[in-house]
Design goal:
Blueprint lengths: L2 H13 L3 H9 L4 H39 L3 H11 L3 H29 L7
Helix pairs in contact: 1-3, 2-3, 3-4, 3-5, 4-5
Length: 123
């Protein structure tokens, strides 16, 4: 569910790298690999982390959907059992656990972004 979102966002980030940066790299004699490694990759890293955060949200939604319909892990079986017993508290407890896991993963990714991209952190 999240692959295409990540690909589109990262490719948009690579296309939006300032042309001046690439021209300066070429003026200093950088080859294609050096341009990619030293100019294009660092300039598109904020877009990569944005894409990862969007993809993470989509992945958590896919996880919840898979648990509801396919009982992929034991949580899905527990949710189906709670549904059959009309136990809405048990069902909401599992959904709450999945939502908290998603939020913790999102915050962890934001912290990693803050460590790796200190110039781009939004306050």
């Amino acid at each position: 569910m999240c692959v295409f979102d990540i690909l589109v966002t990262v490719s948009a980030g690579a296309r939006n790298v300032e042309r001046n940066l690439i021209d300066v790299g070429r003026a200093f004699g950088a080859e294609r690999w050096q341009l990619f490694r030293k100019v294009l990759l660092p300039a598109s890293l904020p877009f990569l982390f944005t894409a990862l955060r969007i993809g993470l949200v989509r992945a958590v939604i896919a996880l919840i959907t898979a648990e509801l319909f396919f009982a992929a892990v034991n949580l899905g079986k527990y949710m189906q059992a709670a549904q059959n017993r009309f136990d809405s508290a048990g069902l909401l407890a599992v959904l709450t656990i999945l939502a908290v896991v998603g939020l913790l993963a999102q915050e962890g990714l934001k912290a990693l972004e803050g460590q790796l991209l200190p110039w781009h952190v939004r306050r």
